[in-house]
Amino acid sequence: MELSFTQGRWNYESWGGFDPISSSNAKPPGVELWAVFDVPQHHIDASWKNLTHTLSGLFCASINFLESTATYSTPEWSFPPASGNVRYGTLPCEAVCTENLTPWLKLLPCRDKAGIALLLDRPSLYRGFYHSQRGRCVLAKSSSVYLLLDRGLVAELKFPNKENGKSAANGLTSENFWSNPSFELSVNPDRIFLEESSSHSKSLSILYMFQVEKYSESEPFDIGLMWKVPVAWLCQQTPLHASRFLMGSGNERGAIAISLKSTQFTEGFMSANSKDGSCELRVDVFQVVPWYVKVYFHSLRVFVDQQPRAVSDFIEKIHVSPSKDKMSPGVMEVVLKLPCRVNTAALTIEFDKGFLRIDEYPPDANQGFDIPSAIISFPNFHASMVFLEDDSLNRSPLLSKFQEKCPVMSYTEVLLVPLTTPDFSMPYNVITIKCTVFALYFGSLLNVLQRRVAEEERFLKAKAAKKTGRLPLLLSKLSAKLRGSGINQD
Q1: What are phi and psi of 255, to 5 degrees?
Q2: R_g (Cα) of the chain, nearest Å
Q3: Alpha-carbon distance 323 to 297, whole Å?
Q4: Which domains are seen in the chain, by residue range?
Q5: Nearest residue to 149 via CA among 233, 230, 212
Q6: Which residues of 79-109 are buried (b: 16+ CB within 10 A; e: fewer)?
Q7: What is the DSSP string of 161-185?
Q8: Which contiguous run of DSSP H or E holds residue 320?
Q9: For residues 252 and 234, what is the distance between their CA atoms, to the nearest angstrom?
Q10: What residues form DSSP beta bridges with 30?
Q11: What DSSP assignment string belongs to 353-422?
């Protein structure tokens, strides 16, 4: 399984996409979780539910929302670890904060008290445009920091040495590397690793290693790189740059478009893989759409170099799983075979916007609903950095990870789809009016039913009679006394 928390989006155009860091470690915004289960087929969904609830409590996140069958999917073959027992789910709108970082640090052997985890300063980390946390951790006896000079940067740094006939690799890896005319390092590296020749690039990467255990509180580890001259370079790009956007207007219908633009990377690949003058570039597309976005898969259209083409001419294989209302999302897996000299390609598919019940809307329904990122992978290309053989390569999990061949893949943007939302103030107004009317009605009705009019009239008459009949009685008693006193005097 793999779980990632990411804030922001990896900028493939500026930060590159054809290397192990961007291809294996760059993740989509929010939470991404995939797992492969070694259990019988009918136990997978129950195991997935237990896994999501466990991770939700462990990482203090809303991962338990992925338990519903309407939120996760079952990739068939386009997702990299795809097999019959894989489950995949994302939460694009999940916010990442320190509440997720603290539980993650508890899984580390020394938390943030030792090792590289000391560098995880929370204010600096969460002020960045992009940060992502995932991966496994092994109990390490030492910590090392690696500084990677990208292939494009090494190629750019060749220019100052061309006049003297020196190669960039010799100039950057010699003992006088700190006197390089382009930059200056504040700390002397302990080891230098050179990348072997790459079939996809003319230049090579250079890796500097710094051992943290050599430093102490009296002499802290403070690495810095100061540029002496302005240097601008571009990291190595994927064969095609992928982007996704919405088309159409209104709250009823629309279309999803996936655009692929050439990055001029396939020139060397064409000469090495062309057969009989023909060259094909394979592109795998994996896209999951929530059930309330009802996609019409038969409306799939393909555009190559801005011209509409027949779908069967460029789609080698396709797998579609239509969505079911409140049951499962829609899944589309496509294998494209494009000519290597293609400049642009695009896929469009139409959809209708569904209606939700009032209790199915989130608290911020007016913001819109998120469609998870689509995954674009290039199976014919593998991102890896093979360094010269050395005993330290086997002891370093990071360098071993760099040398693993992984397919080049990238994530598109998260789409924000506005759906028709009711006026949530109207239920409150209706409830208030109804309660007022019912209170007046039932209050008056109960008042009438509880009153006994005849008895009240008799009580009032008796009360009035008592008040009016007491004075004559007193007067009669007084006159009787006066008469009795007169008789006695006679």
Answers
A1: -150, 150
A2: 38
A3: 11
A4: 240-424 (2.60.40.740)
A5: 233
A6: bbebeebbbbbbbbbbebeeebbeebeeebe
A7: HHTTT--HHHHHHSTTGGG-SSEEE
A8: strand 315-321
A9: 41
A10: 6
A11: E----GGGS-TTGGG-EEEPPPEEEEEEEEE---BPP-HHHHH-HHHHHHHS-EEEEEE-PPEEE-----
Could you identify the residue written with the tokens 């008789």?
A: 487
Pairing of strands 375-383, 280-289: antiparallel
Q: Is 376 exposed, middle or buried (0-12, 13-18, 19+ CB in 10 A)?
A: buried
Cβ contact 281:342 at 8 Å? yes
Which tens digit of pLDDT belongs to each residue from 197-246? 666 666 788 888 888 888 887 888 888 888 888 888 878 888 899 999 99
> What tokens appear for 418 in the block?
């506005």
pLDDT in tens, 271-327: 445 554 568 899 999 999 999 999 999 999 999 999 999 999 999 999 999 999 889
**What is the four-CA torsion angle of 105, 108, 110, 112, rounded to 10 degrees?**
-30
Question: Is there a contact between 49 and 307 (Cβ–Cβ < 8 Å)?
Answer: no
**Residue 407 above 50 pLDDT?**
yes
CA–CA gap between residue 287 and residue 334 (Å, rounded):
9
Handedness of CA 258, 259, 265, 271 (dihedral sign): positive
Residues 6+ apart with CB under 8 A from 269: 200, 239, 279, 281, 340, 380, 381
Please give the single-letter amino acid code of residue 410: S
Residue with tokens 């097999």: 83
pTM of the model as a whole? 0.79
Say if residues 348 and 357 touch (Cβ distance below 8 Å).
no
pLDDT at 486: 57
Distance CA 267, CA 207 (A): 27
Cα distance between residue 333 and residue 344, in whole Å: 20
Round to whole Å and give the CA distance between 290 and 357. 15
Question: Crossing angle of helices 98-106/44-59, nearest 10°?
Answer: 100
Q: Do 358 and 384 contact (CB within 8 A), yes or no?
A: no
- Strand 191-194 and strand 86-91: the pairing is unpaired
Angle at CA of residue 53, ends 49 and 55, nearest 5°: 115
For residue 104 the two structure tokens come to 């993650």
Instruction: Determine the residue type at 297.
Output: F
Helices (H), 279-325: 311-314
Contacts with 440 (C-beta within 8 Å, 6 or more apart), sequence order? none
Kind plus residue range of the DSSP H or E element containing 1: none
Cα separation, 290 vs 284, in Å, equals 20
CA 157 to chain CA mean position, Å: 36
